[in-house]
């Protein structure tokens, strides 16, 4: 058989869109202590049930011009963006790792990170259901991956341990949610990519922080959620981390 073609890529992209649609439910309901299973999808303003024809990822939002069919309230662009982002990341990970257990492993982490990112942006919290659950799953299935249980435990310890130490040294500078998120990331990536995630996310956070102060009048006292930067750093490490580490070692050796 030949390499998977465009039709396969389309199926993977659509799978990601469907997962993204569910992640929108998680992002909205989990911080509000609502079930992500029931009731079914409904307008957040008028409560009208969303029909199947109005719940097609990407297309329904476009066809309805981002409005509720029943009450006409504006439906946030976030719903469209989360679906598109999840579709693209799902395709990118499957393209990078093929149809394999590591791909499935990283897909779960990526989907969790998307939910974490938008919950932290909107509510400035990172639910334990996502971080602790991800860490436990990462450890539980690690024996099926090249990382192994020892690598997963070491990654969890390095990732969570560094942030825990920072929280002790700089009280208030690192939240408990960030510590647990970094531990979960380490359980999936191992210690090397956990360190790269910390470096990359810190760099991204510093750049955004400086730009916020320079262009938006923010001060050092203004809190910027760090979960999105950790998520971005982890995704960069998953997709390109090994190549980045190899390139760095080639430069210094």
TrEMBL record:
Keywords: Cell inner membrane, Cell membrane, Hydrolase, Membrane, Methyltransferase, Transferase, Transmembrane, Transmembrane helix
Ranges for domain Prepilin peptidase A24 N-terminal: 14-97
Source species taxonomy: unclassified sequences, metagenomes, ecological metagenomes
EC number: 3.4.23.43
Transmembrane segments: 7-30, 103-123, 130-147, 153-172, 193-217, 229-249
UniProt membrane topology term: Multi-pass membrane protein
Molecular function GO terms recorded: aspartic-type endopeptidase activity; methyltransferase activity
One GO CC term on file: plasma membrane
Keyword Transferase tagged: yes
Claim: Transmembrane helix is one of the keywords in the record: yes
Listed name of the protein: Leader peptidase (Prepilin peptidase) / N-methyltransferase
GO biological process, one term: signal peptide processing
Domain Prepilin type IV endopeptidase peptidase: 107-210
Broad class of where this protein is predominantly found: membrane
Secretion signal span: none
Family: Belongs to the peptidase A24 family.
Subcellular locations according to the entry: Cell inner membrane
């Amino acid at each position: 058989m030949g390499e998977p073609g465009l039709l396969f890529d389309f199926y993977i992209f659509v799978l990601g869109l469907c997962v993204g649609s569910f992640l929108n439910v998680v992002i909205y309901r989990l911080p509000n202590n609502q079930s992500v299973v029931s009731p079914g999808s409904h307008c957040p303003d008028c409560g009208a049930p969303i029909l199947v024809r109005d719940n097609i990822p990407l297309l329904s939002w476009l066809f309805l011009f981002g409005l509720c069919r029943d009450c006409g309230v504006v439906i946030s662009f976030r719903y469209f963006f989360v679906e598109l982002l999840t579709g693209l990341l799902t395709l990118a990970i499957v393209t990078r790792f093929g149809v394999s257990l590591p791909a499935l492993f990283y897909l779960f982490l990526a989907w969790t990170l998307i939910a974490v990112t938008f919950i932290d942006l909107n509510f400035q919290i990172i639910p334990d259901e996502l971080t602790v659950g991800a860490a436990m799953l990462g450890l539980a299935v690690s024996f099926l991956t090249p990382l192994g249980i020892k690598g997963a435990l070491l990654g969890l310890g390095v990732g969570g341990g560094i942030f825990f130490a920072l929280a002790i040294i700089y009280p208030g500078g690192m939240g408990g949610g960030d510590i647990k998120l970094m531990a979960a990331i380490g359980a999936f990536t191992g210690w090397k990519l956990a360190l790269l995630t910390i470096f990359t996310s810190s760099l991204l956070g510093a750049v955004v922080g400086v730009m916020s102060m320079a262009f938006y009048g923010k001060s050092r006292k203004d809190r910027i959620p760090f979960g999105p930067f950790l998520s971005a750093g982890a995704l960069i490490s998953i997709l390109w981390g090994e190549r980045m580490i190899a390139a760095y070692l080639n430069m210094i050796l």
